[in-house]
Amino acid sequence: MALGTFITFEGIDGSGKSSQARLLAENLQSTGHDTQLTREPGGSDGAEEIRRLLVEGNPDRWSAETEILLFTAARRDHLEKTIEPALASGKVLVSDRFADSTRVYQGAARAALRDVVDLLHAQMIGREPDLTFIIDMDPTAALSRGLARQSGEDRFEDLGLGFQEDLRKGFLALAKDFPDRCHVIDGARDMDVIAAEITEIASDHLA
Ligand code: ADP
Ligand code: TYD
């Protein structure tokens, strides 16, 4: 059994997940929790290599099925090399995205492949977070934040506004499916206000 606590951040592109994951990890570390920050796709050497295949290039590069296999392969490596060891040593592990992203991006918004996503998750991953923050916001505002970064990793952002709107609905539906671990957070506020709310919820959970 894992001794640590697994916390994930989810939401549409540009909603502020990476910023909030970093701020939570800093806040928990400064209040005495042994905390590690990680991300998906990525979070281990092998998974970071797979990440490049996934986030760069033409939006039509992979079929939806191939994409599910690549995300699951990356997640399996991340699980073996980073997540399980961190939790076994009692850490708080904060991940910028995890399996809920596959449920929503590959399982609902792009193609009706949720059964495949769930089957692969059960067979290959078999773990859920203890706590999940879903950062919710208007896709137009989020998209302008995301694309302003010009990161060269815009394969999913390039799928457009309608896609981001479907994703938003998908994440809100997911929060209803997993009410015990999911907290929906209004992301259209000042970064520090959002961080304070999230830190309070996480600290209560850890207490
Ligand atoms: P995500 O990981 O969800 O794509 P990021 O945390 O990388 O989002 O944020 C995307 C951009 O928006 C960054 O330039 C970041 O500085 C900015 N940003 C994040 N949160 C806020 C906020 N609450 N208010 C204004 N800008 C924000
Ligand atoms: P990320 O780096 O979190 O992008 P952003 O900071 O723009 O939100 O993730 C890269 C892209 O990969 C993002 O558009 C979401 C997508 N993705 C999936 O489609 N399925 C998944 O399982 C994961 C983890 C990410």
Rounded to the nearest angstrom, the radius of gyration is 16 Å
| Span between termini | 19 Å
CATH class: Alpha Beta
| Mean pLDDT value | 92
Helix vs. strand class: alpha/beta
Beta-strand residue fraction: 5-15%
Largest sheet: 5 strands, parallel
**So, CATH architecture?**
3-Layer(aba) Sandwich
Task: Please give a structural write-up.
The protein has 207 residues and is of the alpha/beta class. It is globular and about 45 Å long. It has helices spanning 17-30, 45-55, 64-88, 99-109, 114-124, 139-148, 161-177, 191-206; strands at residues 5-11, 35-39, 92-96, 131-136, 182-186. The chain has a single domain (5-206), classed as 3-Layer(aba) Sandwich (Rossmann fold). Helix content is 56%, strand content 14%. The chain binds adenosine-5'-diphosphate and thymidine-5'-diphosphate.
Task: Describe the structure using short key phrases.
207 residues, Rossmann fold, five-stranded parallel sheet, 5 strands, binds adenosine-5'-diphosphate, binds thymidine-5'-diphosphate
